[in-house]
Structures are given as structure tokens and as C-alpha cells.
Amino acid sequence: MNTAKSLEDLLQENYHELKDKDCQNKVLEFIASHESVEDEDVLFIKQLTKVASHISKSNPKLVESSLARLYRYNQEGVRKIHKGNYENIGPYKAIKLEAHFLCYMADMARELHKKTKNLNWMKKSYSCNKVASEITLLNDPEYAMYSLGFAGDAARVLYLETLAPSWGEKWYDYDRFSAQGAGSVIPKHAIHKYRTAAHAAEIMYGKTKDISWKEKEYECVRAIAQIGINCDLPTKIRHFISAAHLAMEIHKQSGEAYWRTEAVDCYQSYLQYRQDHNLNDNSDRSVQETVENLLAMEPAAPRVARTS
To answer: Fewer CB within 10 Å: N-end or C-end of the chain?
Structure first.
């Protein structure tokens, strides 16, 4: 039909950015009049849901009543791919297409959770992002990294609303995995996700008093400082001091001299960076004195591996 072709043309023209009010109106009319897109091909579904996401971001109220329907559209797109109905686009592109559908489902589920306060929608958001990260890990690791981070975001909400330890663990795990995937290549994302993973570990330690959570927090904070060195970000070097404080807390609680050595290493890394970049000032003297006092203690024994 000419109307359908006209819509297809508008979807292509507005795929990367919503530029045409007529496109917005036609997309909203289509959504209002179609409960399903089962009879459409996957590329049309992808274009439609992509433009619908633009509309949602620019004016959420326009699609607020259609969130569940948009979730279903993307779900139908995934089902078509699983059935092999992806018309000559090839298996690699089919995987990317499925990941995009899953992430749109996650977005719609997140918005439905905000609207309904039904936790099942946030669980769906978590699951969709998790699967998207798994299927793109080999072919598109950057996409997988961001999907891991979104799964961590969903797990954080689920933990804060349920206080279930399993969601706290997932929050930490997925944010840390996302940070590790970004590393020094995308430092801003890595730093953000190491910070949120550290926060998750801090909260879990407060709830459980399990010192392994304090160790996890230390590892994340130190990782931020290391990114500061690798990417020459002076404002992040101060995290070595925070990491050293955490290491000393662990040392005091566990009695393991290994953690005193970790604290010394953090302090020294901080001082070395400041020296190499001519950033020294009087405040460094107190840090140096702390290092000297720690080094004057008895030598640290090798760390004993935990058995539980």
C-alpha cells in the first residue's frame, strides 16, 4: 500500500534522528492501530521501534500508553529472528538486530516499571540486557559492555527495592564486568561502573559484614586509580589514597599483613605519579610519613588463600 510505503520512507529518513513531525504522527497512528507486527519483516520492525524510541526520548508522554505494545513489537522481532525469518541480512547482522530488540525491550520494561511499580518489569529489563550482553560478547564487545552496565543498573534497582542479597551480588558483578570491558579504552564508562560496583560492595559489606565485600570495594577503587595512571587523569589518582585506607581497614579486621603491603603500594603509586608530573606539595609529606611508618613494621607475610 502507498501508505505503508510512505511510512517506510519516513522511517528510513528518521532512523538516526527524529526530524519530521509527519513521521512522528504516522508512527503513533500505526502503533495505535496495530496490536502486533507479526506480519511485518524484521527490518521494518527495527526501523519502527527505533523511531518510536526517538519519540519516547523526545516526549515520553506520547508513547506512555503504548509501552507494553512497543515491548511486544520488539519481542515479536526477537521471535522472528529465532525462527530464521531475517531475509538475507546474514547471521552476524541478525545477532546485532536481536540485541537491539532486546535492549529496546529492556528500555520499555524499565519505563513500565516506573509507571506501574511492578518489579516484574524491572526483572524483564535486567534479563533482556543480560541476554543482549551474552549474544554480542564475541562479535560486538563494546555493545556487550554497555548492555552489562544496563543489567547492573536494573539489578541495583531490584536490590534497593527488595534488599535480596542475590540482586546485590548481581549489581556488583554486572557493573564490574562492564567496567572491566571498558578498561582504559572507554575510561569515563569504566570509572563510572567501577564506582557503582564499589558502592554495591560497600552496601553489601554493611549488610553482611563479610570482609570479602570490603576487598571487592578496594579492588574497584584501586582500579579507578589505575585508570587515572593509564589515561593520565590526575583527578582520579587520589583514589589511591582511598584504596590505601580501605586496605588498612581490611588489615585491621583480618590481621593479614598482606593488606598493609597493599596500602603501602597504593600510597607509593600516588606519590610516584605526583612526583613524575611535578605535582608535589606539602600534603605529600604526611603521606610519605605514613608510608615510612608502615614500612617500619614487621615484613608482610605472603597472603593465605581463603578456603571459604
So the answer is: C
